Amino acid sequence: MTNKLIYLLSILLFISCGPSRQEQAQEKLAEAISLKDSGNFNMAKLKLDSLIQAFKDLPEETKSAKALLSEININEQERNLLFLDSAHITKEALLEPLMKNFILSDEYGSTKILIHKRQRPENSYNRTFLRAHLNEAGDFFISSRYHGTKWIYHQQIRVYYQNQSVLSEIVEEDGFNNRRFEDGEFKWEIVNYKDGKDNGVVDFIATNWESPLRVQLMGRAHEYIIMEKFDREAIRDAYEISFVLKEIDRIKTERNRTQKALQKLKEEVR
Length: 270
Known about the structure:
51% of the residues lie in helices and 21% in strands. The chain is α+β, with helices and mostly antiparallel strands. The longest helix has 40 residues.
């Protein structure tokens, strides 16, 4: 027997002694089960996808792989729901202490708003201050509200302390975001700094709320005030509440999407 023939026979013998395709598929299935049981869903799904593609000629094994893949997808969505529920509880716990000085009211417009107890119009109509505006969706902005006996026609504000200051953008008078009205000798001017018009004023106040911040209302004439501590706290807390409310809304939306996906997966395996 030639060396070449011996070599070929050795190769054939080695191949015949190796695991069968069925054994290979079952081994991959066992690996996927182990990965799934350890919580490594992504790797398990990759392993099963590979098995389904490579062993299409083995219907029983591929059927088992597809069934396990469906089970993993269901487990994955159930795990996502648990995570989202936990995140929701955490955010609600974070929100609770921030809300202690805010009330939800429908007395000041067509929609409900969250307003700081010390900044309600009935408490603040005759003073000059910066007000926090916040709704249930987490939309937030500030306004400068001037009260006096003569017009200053202000269009922007500067907030400062010692050698630090931040200047808002100019908001032109338009009867809505910058408006004026009077009652007898008293004048009121309200300027809303929406869509980033505050230009960093809110961040500055939230960061430096413990300091006696000063505000300059700037227009044809100027007005200067020192912010009350509760006004600084109102803006700081409303600003943080806005982020928490938006995150809670995102979690609710994601939970609803996950719940629908889970329901669909369960219906598919029935």
